[in-house]
Amino acid sequence: MLLEVRDLHVEFHTREGVAKAVNGVNYSVDAGETLAVLGESGSGKSVTAQAIMGILDMPPGKISGGEIVFKDRDLLKLRTEERRRIRGQEMAMIFQDALSSLNPVLSVGEQLGEMFVVHRGMSRSDAKVKAIELMDRVRIPAARERVGNFPHQFSGGMRQRIMIAMALALEPDLIIADEPTTALDVTVQAQVMDLLAELQRELNMGLILITHDLGVVADVADKIAVMYAGRIVETSPVHDIYRAPAHPYTKGLLRSIPRLDQKGQELYAIKGLPPNLLHIPPGCAFHPRCPMAQPVCRTDVPPLYTVDENRRSACHFWKETLDAR
Amino acid sequence: MADIRKEPADATPNVTEVATVDAPTEEAAVAAIDAPVSQGEPILQVRNLVKHFPLTQGILFKKQVGAVKAVDGISFDLYAGETLGIVGESGCGKSTVAKLLMTLERATAGEVFYKGQDITKLSGRALKAVRRNIQMVFQDPYTSLNPRMTVGDIIGETFEIHPEVAPKGDRRRKVQDLLDVVGLNPEYINRYPHQFSGGQRQRIGIARGLALNPEIIICDEPVSALDVSVQAQVINLMGKLQDEFNLSYLFIAHDLSIVRHISDRVGVMYLGKMAEIGTDTQIYDHPTHPYTQALLSAVPVPDPTARDRRERIILSGDVPSPANPPSGCRFRTRCWKAQDKCATEVPLLAIPERFVGGSTPASHESACHFAEDKDVVHAA
User: Fold this and answer.
1) Peptide bond preceding A180 in cis form (omega within 30 of 0)
2) Which residue of B30, B143, B323, B349 has the fewest C-beta atoms within 10 A of its own C-beta?
3) Which A positions 142-201 lie with beta carbon below 8 A of chain B?
4) ipTM higher than threshold 0.90
């Protein structure tokens, strides 16, 4: 296994109290595999990713437990310099908002080349050649002429390509993409996702795709981890979860999205609101919104039950959820 | 859902003749604006609407060196009680259309007839009456509510401007009624926006839009800032309100699935022009414009089994600048069907010749010289 997150806990100490952003997350991704982490805002999906990358703001954040095993090393036990070496070389991240993630006063060529100067000790002129190669690779037209351009001179889709190029520069083993196409128009989104999938295949990288878009997940993922209030509520191969979700939250999400290919009547709406992380409900965090909630859900935190060999569901009534389709 | 939605008005043309109303005095104009319109009749008729934003050079002696052609000649009708969805990518001009209809921007050319009166030429009391009847719900519930005002003041402010809708002593109760209608606790009237979640804030925005009993609500990306589970709640609420208050919606969004769900008819915009317009079935199941086809095929469907069975049309390149749009058909630079004719002749928004008089759903208005029916949404 390329990466394994085991029982990870992250909390944020704020003036109002301790916000438990991640409460025991387990997931894994292998080389060449795409794991989609699905969740709404505040579900802890991005915080988990930041903990893996080692870019969590600490304080206020604090990793209060768990292990992140990457290529047989627990990242949380490594020293800062060792982690810095891993970051960029062995794992890289693509962010949602390319414009604010790129440095506005450096040309894209300098920013791409910097990877080679810092990590590989290349000269600036060699690095520039590499930068042009990378821009070609992510299919930015006229790379040679545009290498000196600044981020604002590129369109949103092109900027996201530059972000991808930067993440791929040192051919890492793992890429974490945090909502890589959310800010893009749908035709550009298709271009960028295509490119990402192709490069992943070519380099046999593991990909963690963080998203809230059930359509994108269905298109590219091999397996899914659904998060709610800092916990994994369901993990499954992609086909099974769309066919028969084993957690009421997943089921609610799937039923609440309008479909492009059919005209629906009223949409199913999950009642209520996502919980406040300062006051996560006791028992199953989803119980106040769950149509199937029973007294036991208010008191006992559901473990990740084994549905079958590849599927887990954190619902006391996963069997009933599966059956009641 | 309203009756009009169950039975899509397949026969309704995109544009009908405008029955202009001659109002010599302001009183007559206001009376015409307040006259009722029966369901299914055109309430808003947009004709050749143009908005160019000038590009200037120089500081002291500004001279115009060009124009951003944000909206460049679009025409459509909005019928009473229907939802017309407008889709398109960023920069296509859909939000500018909203602003023009709200008379927040002055049109460069063209007309917007509201019940037969051209609102681009109105002023004074008549314009005020129009503005009362056309309201807006904004995209971002975080920035469109004043953080220093209570919910009661935000919604009640509309009555300060239009005092005839609710007498002073009645306003508080009216605001509480509105909160109840949009599914918020009426006791929240004294709370501030930051005390609400995103979905609740959008409900406040909707309550404000409803306050003056408008006939038309223009919704500019009303749910795109919301989480998936909350999005469905707000969409259902909007559907319910439409039936209850007999509203017409102009629903602007980039999410094609949501637009299909809520709309009776859908218009697709590209670079300031309408590329194709028709009922939801016509547009989604029988698109004839290549741009619509590419747009629809690019939307991921939440069904992994469709992954390899759906045709994907991946467009190359980006949308050209609206300051310097391509000649002829605006889509030709990215179109796989483009021929010489496309560079010279602007395709008109009309039922393509080969489909004229046909009974197929492909027989709807599409601005393409080489229109053909192609289902890109459903897996083969």
Assistant:
1) no
2) B143
3) 155-158, 185-191, 193-194
4) no
